[in-house]
């Protein structure tokens, strides 16, 4: 006996599409980061800047960006905590 084809619910289709879009976004971000680092290293070589100096600047820049992300997350957590404290009498 043959089972009828079931139509996927819209929620499953949305989740599948969302998951694939996140994978594409992650891949694009990774490839863009690799291309940017390679371009900066290449430009540094073209202008005669030592590779170690360029990598130190890239590391410092990445650390600075991570510190900004952490500061934003801490600010968000602080604001959410204050909101919960002010809501409760």
Short description:
This protein has 89 residues and is mostly helical. The chain has helices at 10-46, 51-87.
Describe it for me?
The chain has 89 residues and is an all-alpha fold. The chain has 2 domains: 40 residues; 40 residues. Helices cover 83% and strands 0% of the residues. Helix 1 runs antiparallel to helix 2. The longest helix is centred in the N-terminal third of the chain and has 37 residues. The chain starts with 9 loop residues before the first helix and ends with a helix. The mean pLDDT is 87.
Overall shape: flat
Distance between the termini: 63 Å
Please state the structural category: mainly alpha
**Helix tally?**
2
| Number of discrete domains | 2
* Percentage of residues in strands: under 5%
Based on CA atoms alone, the radius of gyration comes out at 23 Å
Order of helices and strands: HH
Helical residue percent?
A: over 70%
Q: What low-confidence regions span 5 or more consecutive residues with pLDDT below 50?
A: none
The oligomeric status of these chains comes to: single chain
- The strand count comes to 0
